[in-house]
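As agreed, record minuted below.
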Amino acid sequence: MLKQNLQYKLLQKLSPQQIQLMKLIQLPTQAFEQKLKEEIEENPALESGKEEVKDEFDLDQDDYDDYNSESVDLNEVNIDEYISDDEIPSYRLESNNYSSDDEEKQIPYASGKSFQHTLLDQLHTYKLSEEYINIAEFLIGSLDETGYLRRSVEDIVDDLAFTQNIYTEPKVVEAILVNIIQNLDPVGVGARDLRECLLIQLKSKEVTESIENAILILEEAFDSFVKKHYKKLLTKFDIDEEELKDAIQEISKLNPKPGGSFENTNKFSQQIVPDFTVRINEGEIELSLNARNVPELHVSNTYNNMLKGYQESDKKSKSQKDAVLFIKQKLDSAKWFIDAIRQRQQTLLLTMSAITDYQKEYFLTGDEQKIKPMILKDVADKIDMDVSTVSRVANSKYVATPYGTKLIKEFFSESMKNTQGEDVSTKEIKSILQTVVGEEDKKKPLTDDKLAAVLKEKGYPIARRTVAKYREQLDLPVARLRKEI
């Protein structure tokens, strides 16, 4: 049975312009510049740089009459050129010939070799049968970026049969792995775990007493070594503390990730571009937005004039009307984008200004212990904006200060009360915790309970589990693993 009902619903929807603004706000400087470049390439009505003639064109959806641009007759402008279906880009139609006298002003970039290609080049210096070469190449292709073989020999044998049509035995693959792959450079590649990787490197060194002790420790007591049970090692191998220290020092010189040196060979180092700059001038904070975040954009005069030519034309064909719809769409898009850029600049400056005002003591002194507890809601309430907007501004953006370039979200932290009842930042407590751990006796490192007691003496009464949480956030190991001989 069909029924008709009347229902009222309250919905909140973001307009395309609001979505575009939110996306722009969260972009850091370099990503923002890339977005600008893409938008200028996609929208011919959007231009960068200073305008030669001041454009006062009104881009409201229903009103295109109030502007002072010079009139252009539509008959003199071939509008079809702007909506051509010709997909051949202009650069394909240009000559690219250079004489030997032309100076090459571009800076060449070194491409480098990948980790696997370096190993393959070494492999091809061996005289092996075609089958063995194929197996060795497959093993190299199975290594991860750190140089380890994370799969079992049995799995490799199965894959060789199914994907390469090579039928072999596990002992053959094992022999090629141990005798060929693990002898390639850098030493340690082809290992199946950390223990094997370290042993390969030790056995390639010139034999000394400390090297022999290190090999014995890894072969017979690897778990005790990892857990730093030094007393067990001293008893098991009947050596003194000095000999154990020498053996551990030899192990500490080894590379646990032999393939790691090739990890960033083909990656360009990216320099951090701060979005804001803070300067101190006569005790006052001066905040400025990076000039690269303030581009000069304007609407194309050519498109404005084309629209005016259509409005003044007596004859309006269907193709001309279609062209004008296209022009209006591009002009609207250009105006919306320029407005979004302006709103982005205002939002960034307003938010960062509130942050610098809130953390004024830190920016004036540079003392991290002066960083006040601050959460996103504190800034959002101060500037009367949504928490999500503040989060987008703070995320992945940097500020250049007299004390170095800082990630903005580092200024946000929870608060705790000290023994005086004052609100202190958790960053301050973490800083003190790191100092206490750094100054402890490494032969008898402090447990989490003792660290909590030390912090309580300093006026920060926090529980042991909170100390453990902060220690893990600071990437500090437990007391047993901080122990040294």
Residues 53-110, 265-269 have pLDDT under 50 and may be disordered. The domain at 415-482 is CATH 1.10.10.60 (Arc Repressor Mutant, subunit A). Residues 88 and 94 are 11 Å apart (CA to CA).
